[in-house]
Amino acid sequence: MMTPRWRTFLGILLLLGGGPAWGQNQTLQGQKHGPWKVKYEGSSTLRYEGTFEQGVPVGTFTHYHPNGVKRAVMIFRGRTQVCYVREYAENNVLIAEGKYSAPGVKDSTWRVYDLNGKLLNLETYAGGALNGLYQTFYPNGKVVETGSMEADAKTGTWVRFTETGTKLRSADYQNDVPDGLWIEYDEDGRMAVRGEYHHGLREGKWLEFADGKAVKGTWYHKGRITKEVEY
């Protein structure tokens, strides 16, 4: 469920390493200290600028793409390594924003956008893993799907919608597999299918509906059909 469109903070931190440094850059006891500006190798283009306190980034760091456009703005909370990040594409559009509780460890609410600035995902993290509300969105801003994550896996009830907001499906998950009630709806929002999953396999009686009325029943055991009845 992760989007590959933008790089992780850990990758950005690596940029705090190499690259040609400007003359005013200083070190203290072998560690970066004070204001620093670093350019891309073999280029006059600035790669990043920010301030260190004995090797620890503090305050605001700004990173740049090779074309000179701002790539990311990182605001550090003192020397704690807690960092708030806003990341940008080469067209200067915001594509991600959120918080890190430590280098590479996502925390709290993250928002991911497409290259036009439209919200794609709303993600909740704890300890670097997806934990809590997770939503995806259509280009018109309507919710595609909403539910909860636990340790990077779907859990509880997930609801999916059409681009106009009509409910398409309500499904229960446990550890990223269907487990519990599963309901599908037609384009008018009426129930079309209803049944249950047990550990990812259909179990018991499943009903199909047309115009709101049951038209077929199918019985399952561990995913295999045992009986079918038309009404």
Overall 3D shape: elongated
Structural class: mainly beta
Which second-level CATH architecture of the largest domain applies? Alpha-Beta Complex
CATH topology of the largest domain, what is it called? Answer: Outer Surface Protein A, domain 3
- The helix content is under 10%
**Count of spatially separate domains:** 2
Number of helices: 1
Overall pLDDT score? 91
The multimeric state of the shown protein is single chain
Structural overview:
The protein is mostly beta strands and 231 residues long. It folds into two domains: 1-126, Alpha-Beta Complex (Outer Surface Protein A, domain 3); 138-231, Outer Surface Protein A, domain 3 (Alpha-Beta Complex). It is 3% helix and 63% strand. The protein is built from one helix and 18 strands. The chain has one helix at residues 9-14; strands at residues 26-28, 31-39, 46-53, 56-64, 70-76, 83-88, 94-102, 105-113, 119-126, 129-137, 143-150, 153-161, 167-174, 177-185, 191-198, 201-210, 213-221, 224-230. The chain has an 18-stranded antiparallel β-sheet. The protein is elongated.
